[in-house]
């Protein structure tokens, strides 16, 4: 196994990078890093700059400003040995439909100098062993996507770049793909995933980088982003009898569903509020606490970014 996978080793370093295509600033002053064993997600709407960042990490394009290092080297230096350590699943995987899964993966394995045994192993890893000898033209989108993932996993890459790997997959297939991603990260790979959907990333991404029109709006773990956003927490208190509910609850809460009151509070005030609710003893039947969803977090950071640029 390559030394680059030593726990905590820097796999990707993007420092103050800009990329311009003529008048279009696809990426502006972006810095991000991924360590060995870490899964980092690039999240953003269409045109946010996710694919451009992946192309920069693959060395397919060069930055207009700033610096990109992958496994300590310039990815655009065209060193084939360094390229072996990078696995890439493009956004739109296209395979020759007349070939079988085994033939296609065998072709990519030969390109990477991998032994034939790896083909069978990887077809098993992505759950395609049984379909391997059918032409991929007869496969579902999810099966083709998993073949793309198997191709990206050839040669045990130290860095895995997955560009919108779950687009078009049903929830069960998304779950199994993300399960695979987690196990690769546990084995020491650095994984970068791009996606439109922040809500998919709970329990998957160690860190999330939210992008909008080429710049980073926020980055951190989902827990850190929640703390940063300070979005209100919703508390629903159900009482035995509204008429005998504590005075403060009737005053401060919004009555819903006959027997319940909705309250909101800042994250730091949550425990104090729950203590007040608990002091209501017999009058209180139930309490539910709802933290902001990841979609609400995403909307918050997008809106904040647009406010700062005077776009709203
Ligand atoms: N080769 C190119 N020439 C000109 N403009 C480009 C080129 N590639 C990308 N862009 C522009 O750069 C911006 C960022 O594009 P990019 O493909 O990186 O976004 P993305 O976040 O991957 O979007 P999507 O979710 O739609 O794939 C867009 O405005 C896009 O039109």
Automatic annotation (TrEMBL):
Signal peptide: none
One of the Pfam families matching this protein, by short name: ABC_tran
SMART domains from the UniProt entry: AAA
A single GO molecular function term of this UniProt record: ATP hydrolysis activity
InterPro entries hit by this protein: AAA+_ATPase, ABC_transporter-like_ATP-bd, P-loop_NTPase
Keywords, ordered alphabetically: ATP-binding, Nucleotide-binding, Transport
Domain called ABC transporter: residue spans: 12-238
Coiled-coil region list: none
UniProt xrefs under PROSITE patterns: ABC_TRANSPORTER_2
UniProt similarity note: Belongs to the ABC transporter superfamily.
Stored PANTHER family: ABC TRANSPORTER RELATED, ABC TRANSPORTER, ATP-BINDING PROTEIN
Name this protein carries in UniProt: ABC transporter ATP-binding protein YxlF
Lineage: Bacteria, Pseudomonadati, Pseudomonadota, Alphaproteobacteria, Hyphomicrobiales
């Amino acid at each position: 196994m390559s030394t680059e996978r030593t726990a905590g080793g820097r796999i990707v370093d993007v420092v103050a990078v800009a990329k311009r295509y003529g008048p279009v600033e696809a990426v502006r002053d972006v810095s991000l890093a991924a360590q060995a064993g870490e899964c980092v997600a690039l999240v953003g709407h269409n045109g946010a700059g996710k694919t451009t960042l992946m192309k920069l990490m693959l060395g397919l394009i060069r930055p207009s400003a700033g610096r990109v290092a992958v496994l300590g080297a310039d990815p655009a230096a065209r060193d084939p040995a360094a390229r072996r350590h990078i696995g890439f699943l493009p956004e739109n995987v296209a395979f020759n439909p007349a070939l079988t899964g085994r033939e296609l993966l065998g072709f990519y394995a030969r390109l990477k100098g991998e032994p034939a045994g790896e083909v069978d192993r990887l077809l098993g890893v992505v759950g395609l062993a049984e379909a391997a000898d059918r032409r991929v033209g007869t496969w579902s989108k999810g099966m083709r996507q998993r073949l793309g993932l198997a191709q990206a996993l050839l040669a045990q890459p130290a860095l895995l770049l997955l560009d919108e790997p779950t687009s078009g997959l049903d929830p069960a297939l998304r779950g199994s793909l993300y399960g695979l991603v987690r196990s690769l990260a546990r084995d020491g790979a650095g994984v970068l995933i791009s996606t439109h959907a922040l809500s998919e990333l709970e329990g998957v991404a160690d860190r999330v980088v939210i992008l909008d029109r080429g710049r980073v709006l926020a980055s951190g773990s989902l827990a850190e982003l929640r703390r940063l956003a300070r979005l209100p927490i919703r508390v629903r208190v159900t009482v035995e009898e509204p008429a005998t509910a504590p005075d403060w609850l009737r005053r401060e809460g919004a009555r819903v569903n006959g027997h319940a009151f909705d309250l909101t509070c800042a994250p730091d005030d949550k425990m104090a509020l729950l203590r007040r609710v608990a002091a209501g003893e017999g009058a209180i039947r139930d309490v539910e606490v709802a933290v902001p969803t990841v979609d609400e977090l995403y909307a918050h950071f997008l809106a904040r970014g647009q406010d700062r640029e005077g776009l709203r």
